[in-house]
Amino acid sequence: MAIKTPLDGRNQLQEIRKNIEGYVGQKIVLKANKGRKKTTVREGILENTYPNIFIVRIDGKFDDNVRRVSYSYSDILTETVEITVCSDNKSIKVS
């Protein structure tokens, strides 16, 4: 008989990373909590994942600037960042 134990922080971060890795190259909506009741919502493309962070490429709406922002997987774990994947007119919430 196996006893289920809650996942520790390291295992949760690994699961989040594995989930996000499957969506590299896809369009996402990123909602980030900036503190003091400030949130930003941006659309971009999940560009790459690394052991501790992931990179999102955000295209400028009014100019030709391309901006890259990075977040850690712990930002998703602490619900500072929410990611929604937009594919085939469906939204899939990753976080």
Strand content: over 45%
**Biggest sheet overview:** 6 strands, antiparallel
Mean model confidence by pLDDT: 84
Spatial separation of the terminal alpha carbons? 31 Å
Helix amount: 10-25%
- What class, by secondary structure content? alpha+beta
Spatial order of strands in the largest sheet: 4-3-2-1-5-6
Radius of gyration: 15 Å
The number of distinct β-strands equals 6
> What gross morphology would you assign?
globular
Count of helical segments?
A: 2
Question: N-to-C SSE series?
Answer: HEEEEHEE
Low-confidence stretches: none
Summarize the structure in words:
The structure is a single chain. It is built from two helices and six strands. The protein has helices at residues 9-21, 73-77, and strands at 27-35, 38-49, 53-59, 66-72, 81-87, 90-93. A six-stranded antiparallel beta sheet has the order 4-3-2-1-5-6. Strand 2 and strand 3 form a beta hairpin. The longest helix is centred in the first third of the chain and has 13 residues, at 9-21. The radius of gyration is 15 Å and the shape is globular. It starts with 8 loop residues before the first helix and ends with a strand. The mean pLDDT is 84.
